[in-house]
Design goal:
It contains eleven helices and 14 strands. It is an alpha+beta fold.
């Protein structure tokens, strides 16, 4: 297993058989660098794990296929929906699913608040992004103004500025804050985009925007919701999905991420082995059904383990 990252201190390097430091994703030579590395090391597949990597590799998928490399990534149209929280919101509404009320300008959010269509607290976050970068809860109008300006400034100081450059006046999302139980779903499709299964976890604790503790659950409604999304998007491999079960019982879809998410380790702990299933699909074999099954009621927590990278 080869691990590639633009940071020589990436933690994944400690577990890899071989490592390579790449150019930054937005470097004009990034794709050519990866193509050359794949040729030189007989790489058969690439599984991207970083949101902003997805559209770049999706657009170059045919170039990799021409040298025998299968990039396990969704089509460009799907990565565009998932990476852009505003497009996620509009797509899910078109699908008839419940979503948090969302506003892509501060003026629109203020009008909704004045009209009683939106109430405090509200979430303020980058339109593009992952993890906890620039995510705040505003309790009143003063905090909303401050956090909106703060998020806009943080976007310009991080890699998010590249994605946000396409819509410079609409880079920050203001979103309804949903009260309820949050769940993380691994929506699993095969490499032809056919839905196979969905793993469901109830989130018990969060840290730095990622699930820190979760328990696997057998929830028919959430399994059905995952199947609906997987069949509609037809992504390849895993799709990470955040869903709230609101106090009134509604299932409210918060985010879609067309990649392995930070919650997948809890599925793995409960018996799944999706990486091994993907390898089987790549080799034209049917995976063992046990690799696509989780045991409900497995409560897991992430731990920080010191590692040494040489």
């Amino acid at each position: 297993m080869h691990a590639a990252n633009s940071d020589a201190h990436a933690s994944a390097f400690a577990a890899a058989d071989a490592t390579v430091v790449t150019p930054l994703i937005h470097d004009p030579g990034y794709v050519d660098f990866l193509l050359g590395y794949c040729r030189d090391h007989a790489i058969g597949a690439i599984i991207p794990l970083f949101d902003i990597d997805l559209p770049v590799l999706a657009a170059a998928r045919d170039r990799f296929a021409a040298i025998g490399v299968n990039v396990v990534v969704a089509d460009p149209g799907v990565t565009a929906i998932c990476n852009d929280k505003w497009r996620t919101f509009t797509y899910l509404k078109e699908q008839g699913l419940d979503v948090p009320a969302s506003y892509v300008t501060l003026d629109a959010a203020r009008r909704a608040l004045d009209a009683g269509e939106l109430r405090f607290p509200v979430m303020v976050k980058p339109r593009w992004g992952m993890g906890s970068i620039g995510v705040y809860k505003a309790e009143d109008a003063t905090e909303l103004a401050v956090f909106h300006a703060k998020v806009a400034a943080e976007i310009q100081r991080t890699y998010l500025r590249h994605e946000s450059a396409a819509t410079p006046d609409a880079t920050v999302l203001v979103q309804e804050c949903i009260d309820g139980e949050e769940h993380g779903l691994d929506v699993v499709n095969d490499l032809e985009g056919r839905h196979v299964t969905t793993f469901v976890k109830r989130k018990l604790a969060m840290r730095s925007g990622e699930t820190d503790r979760a328990v696997t659950v057998d929830d028919p409604e959430l399994h059905a919701l995952g199947a609906r999304i997987g069949q509609a998007l037809r992504q390849r491999g895993n799709l990470d999905m955040d869903v709230f079960r609101a106090r009134d019982g509604r299932l409210v879809v918060l985010e879609l991420n067309a990649r392995f998410g930070g919650g997948y380790p809890f599925s793995h702990l409960a018996g799944a082995d999706l990486p091994r299933a993907i390898v089987a699909w790549l080799q034209g074999r049917a995976p063992d059904p046990a690799w696509l099954t989780v045991k409900p009621g497995v409560d897991g927590v992430k731990d920080i383990i010191p590692i040494t990278i040489t």
